[in-house]
Design goal:
heterodimer; A: mainly beta; five-stranded antiparallel sheet; 11 strands; B: seven-stranded mixed sheet
Amino acid sequence: QKEVEQNSGPLSVPEGAIASLNCTYSDRGSQSFFWYRQYSGKSPELIMFIYSNGDKEDGRFTAQLNKASQYVSLLIRDSQPSDSATYLCAVKKNSGYSTLTFGKGTMLLVSP
Amino acid sequence: DAMVIQNPRYQVTQFGKPVTLSCSQTLNHNVMYWYQQKSSQAPKLLFHYYDKDFNNEADTPDNFQSRRPNTSFCFLDIRSPGLGDAAMYLCATSRERGQGYEQYFGPGTRLTVT
């Protein structure tokens, strides 16, 4: 089992729809979870982070964490073509100095 | 604005010719990281500095070295680049290493090996 798994996509949604991106992780002791957006040829940009079970909302973005089921998701409401990018899920394992482990990312395509 | 800066943005080097990539930060963060990212792959951590304490990942090739002369600057040295080292190299920083501290990335350096 990979440490952080994401569906590579592409996930295609029409403009204005809700995009739902999912991520599962293997280390049950993980405590910090991050979503990064990466446009083609660019570096990752931090969108959201979540540390507690439940939902965390920031504008059009909502991160959801379920530690019992070991998954974290990102919802993007009112999707825009400018949201088209690869979304990387990253997890801090419960190790001594907690470096990030990234998933391979899910490509999101929002069509006008 | 506080930020992470990488130079150069694009680097072309010849097979076997040493190359140095630079990263600087104005965030005054304690931790600096170097990642390698190849097309359609996850960023792969090469090593990180916690202050002056160097931490190498177990599978980072010996061909890769790093220096952090002060809090603001960190360098990635590739001693003898091979074709397989062509990638985007990402520098990131975080205030601390523990849980709950997010990482911020610089714009990256795209390395081409000819």
